[in-house]
Amino acid sequence: MATKASRSAARLMMAPAVILLLGWMLVPLTLTLIFSFKKFLPLRGDSIDSGWDWFTFFPSLEWVGFDNYARFLSSSAFWPSVITTLVIVGGVLLITVVFGILLAILLDQPMWGQGVVRILVIAPFFVMPTVSALVWKNMFMDPVNGLFAHLWRFFGAEPVSWLSEASLQSIVMIVSWQWLPFATLILLTAIQSLDGEQLEAAEMDGAPPLKRFWFITLPHLSRAITIVVLIQTIFLLSIFAEIFVTTGGAFGTRTLTYLIFQRVLESQNVGLGSAGGVYAIILANIVAIFLMRIVGKNLDR
């Protein structure tokens, strides 16, 4: 049993790591919040006043209040970018959960070379997002030399220019391919923890495979599904690399994260981009609270 001295020693040893992590998160967040109320145009030079702001370690910047927030919110690209972000997140979650369950059930069946097949299925998760996006863009979706183009011509159809004619669907497909192994791995682990005696008893009672899946397997996977949805949503809300490499935010694929990137780097308006970052944090927290309620209900069962 841990004594008071051992608990104090444990807290003392953990303190440097906790302080480092808090600083790693709080310093950028604080600077983003400060810059969102300032006029900060670093390459234009017209936002710098005389003197030095020792609080932010930057030259004094003109205070503009909530102007950056109003400008970002009133932008014609703001709400479409929010909707695009939610559509991509929802599409990827739907594909990865549905196909993840199917793949997990398939991989749980005894087969020759089962270990090798599982490694091949999980491998895409370890590919960098930029690399996977480049592979899909040049090897699969190229309208001239891509694999899909050759396949379309083989069946006598006209090749599709995926990244311009079906750009949003293409982004969802690329991101789903990268996150499907993660969902499959979590769901496969959950399926392997299912008591086989329940399935055997249901089979002996004459229950068909579909009913066994619906009433036994799927309820058992509910917790794993909620974990997959929660973790993937946290990362998918900040999707950027796949869009930057493939469409560059064109053809209706500009997410909120990409809009912030454009405001900061392309227009060199750090204050406006920081206000967008605060909006992104608010959106992420709203989605996180909603998901945590769902997760909490499932974990309490």
Q: Any overview of this molecule?
A:
Strands 1-3-2 form a three-stranded antiparallel β-sheet, covered by helices on one side. Strand 2 and strand 3 (58-63) form a beta hairpin. It contains 14 helices and three strands. It has helices at residues 4-35, 67-74, 78-107, 114-122, 129-140, 147-154, 162-165, 167-192, 196-204, 209-220, 222-236, 241-246, 256-266, 270-299, and strands spanning 38-39, 48-53, 58-63. It is globular. With 301 residues, it is mainly alpha-helical. The protein has a single domain, classed as MetI-like fold (Orthogonal Bundle).
Offer a few descriptive terms.
mainly alpha, 14 helices
Can you describe this structure in just a few lines?
The protein is mainly α and 301 residues long. Helix content is 70%, strand content 5%. It has helices at residues 4-35, 67-74, 78-107, 114-122, 129-140, 147-154, 162-165, 167-192, 196-204, 209-220, 222-236, 241-246, 256-266, 270-299; strands spanning 38-39, 48-53, 58-63.
End-to-end gap: 31 Å
Largest sheet: 3 strands, antiparallel
Rg over alpha carbons = 25 Å
Please tell me what the overall shape is: globular
Q: What's the domain count? A: 1
Q: Overall pLDDT, averaged? A: 82
Strand % is under 5%
What's the count of strands?
3
Fold-level CATH name: MetI-like fold
Number of helices: 14
What's the CATH superfamily, by name? Answer: MetI-like
State the helicity in percent bands.
over 70%
Helix-strand string: HEEEHHHHHHHHHHHHH
Strand order of the largest sheet: 1-3-2
Give the CATH class: Mainly Alpha
> Which structural class matches the secondary elements?
mainly alpha
The stretches of 5 or more residues where confidence is low (pLDDT under 50) are none
Q: Any idea what the CATH architecture is? A: Orthogonal Bundle
